[in-house]
Every structure is written in C-alpha cells, then in structure tokens.
Amino acid sequence: MTFSVPILVRGYELDTQGHLNHAVYHQYGEHTRWELLRAAGIDLDKFIASGVGAVVLESTIKYKRELRGGDEVTVTCAFEWPEGSKVFRFHHRIIKLDGTEAAEITVVAGAMDLTTRRLVADPAEHFRSLAEHPELLGL
Fold first, then answer.
1. Any idea of its EC number (predicted)?
2. Using one digit for the tens of pLDDT, what is the confidence trace for 87-118?
3. Cα–Cα distance list, 14 to 69, 99, 123, 132 (Å)
4. Domain count along the chain
5. Range of 25's domain?
C-alpha cells in the first residue's frame, strides 16, 4: 500500500518562470511524510516525547515535468528499511491528475537519539514501537 496526499500548487509557491519553486518540492515531501506518520499514529508530540528525532541526511529530486499554479497533484510516500542499517529511506512520487509523474524524491534519513546525538541502531524498531498502525510504515 502506498500512502498519498493531494496538494494544490499555490501561486505563492512559484518561481519567476511560473514553475513550482524547487524548494517547495521538498516541502511537499515533508508534509506527506508527517501526514503518513500521523496516520500511523505517531504525532509530533509522541515523537518528541520518545526522545528521538528524525534527521534528513540526504534528499534528491528528479524533475520530470513542470508544475504550475493551479495544478493538482498527489504526493506519495513509502518507507524503505534496509536490514541492519541505521538509516532508512522515504520514496516520494509527485503525480499530476492526468497520471504524469512530475518528480521523484528520495530521502535518506535516520532516527537520532536527542540525548546522545547519535543515530539509533534500529530505527525500524523505534518507529514500530511508537506506531498504532505500523503497516502504514512498511513494518
């Protein structure tokens, strides 16, 4: 199952050519990730109270089609949990209403212990312990 959120491209998000500003693609991914966590039962307060914070280590965008003001898109989000790794990945697709893929975003992230400032050894287990619906996280 792939989680998704509908988003309308707003005029104030555009660059001087009338395209969606490059930084906003990252914001769309971030918004979708938090909505997925919330749907899985992990809200921001619960996450912070766990003493662990999510950290982005790398974010890559492949632009495929332009987005302009008024375009309606669906932003998907799926987790990837490499076995034995301290990092995990989010995979996003930004899809226009006609099914055209506008962009792909891949984010490498970690779960950082806020006291030791180190990545936790098993981020999947940490997320599983917090989630009410771990299946939404691919767990």
1. 3.1.2.-
2. 999 999 999 999 999 999 999 999 999 999 99
3. 7, 21, 35, 37
4. 1
5. 3-137
